[in-house]
From TrEMBL:
Keywords: Cell membrane, Membrane, Receptor, Transducer, Transmembrane, Transmembrane helix. Its main location: membrane. The keyword Glycoprotein does not apply. Belongs to the insect chemoreceptor superfamily. Gustatory receptor (GR) family. This is Gustatory receptor. InterPro entries: 7TM_chemorcpt. It is found in: Cell membrane.
Amino acid sequence: MCIALLLKLCKVLVIVPGENYKHSLAYTLYTYTWIVLSLASVLFYIFGQLTNPNFKTMIFTVRILDGVTMALITSSTLCIASKCRLATNLLQHLQLTSIKENNRKIMVGFVLVHIVFIATNLVGDASLSMSIGLLPGARIVKYYILRDMQWYVQTIAVYLVIIVAHKFKIMFEELNVCLQSYSTESDTSERDEKVQLILKLRKRYNHLADLVQEFNDVFGLTIFFAVLFTMAMAVFSIHRAIVFSLFVSDDPGRLWIILASILWTIVVTLQALLLAASCSSMEKEARRTEKICYSLVNEAPAMLKEISKEVVSELCILAQLVGCRKPSVSAAGFFKVNYEMMGFIAATVTSDTIITLQCLIESIKM
């Protein structure tokens, strides 16, 4: 039920249109309308907010970083919309609706995503209103409405990626169970049955590797821009908190803006961490397939009395295939999505924060 609800939401947000809407003229027009709105949001943001007199006193670096986050979230939305039909083909192959093992966890995660997202944006909008007054704040918040909508689309797309990575993990677990059962039943099966089983497992692994590659082709750029947005949003939030701490003393909403900046940093970091954890667990399960294959090859000489050379040859081919094709989630080929990615994000944000502090301290001295 939760997966079906998620897929219906993805149709509305132009993430996965579904087979019924894939060739629909109305849905095509709806997709192009969403793309135009995404592009218009950037123009609305630039020619609306930055010319507003309330923002003329804002430090230039804060405005630049705010604009970078806007550009990245728009790029992510455009990538999602441009790949939506390919995403439909991928999800049909995966059969996501068959996931029943952790359906309750998926539902809880789906609800928490919405609660955290709504709370984060409410705090952010409230901080603007507290900073410059209720009515002026309402006028400024309107410039962020389209960005918040795009952020919501990206959040749901990232959650879908996490679910798909979990599905891949389940498929690799089933493959590993078959390999392990082959190891325990190798002395009772007939030779032809053993060969056929290895051939099936080889085709199955090759099919899984193809699906992971197709997944990277569809969602790779989306993940790439989502990770860049995470870094930019974290740098922007920390930078803004530092600026308001050091340079702004008479703003009534100063504390609110600092708290909102901290909350935004925590939220985008948690999102990236969940994405890295899900993709890393899938990659770990795929690596376990390689270990099981080589373990079977190493045990083959001890079983030569029971199995033929043909079976050993098929085992070696399977082990070589697993060694050559190592499925992993990639951000458009730029980097793998795992815990190493979190180290890259942490290093980037930390270095930018240190540079920001040094520049601001020097400017205060001057």
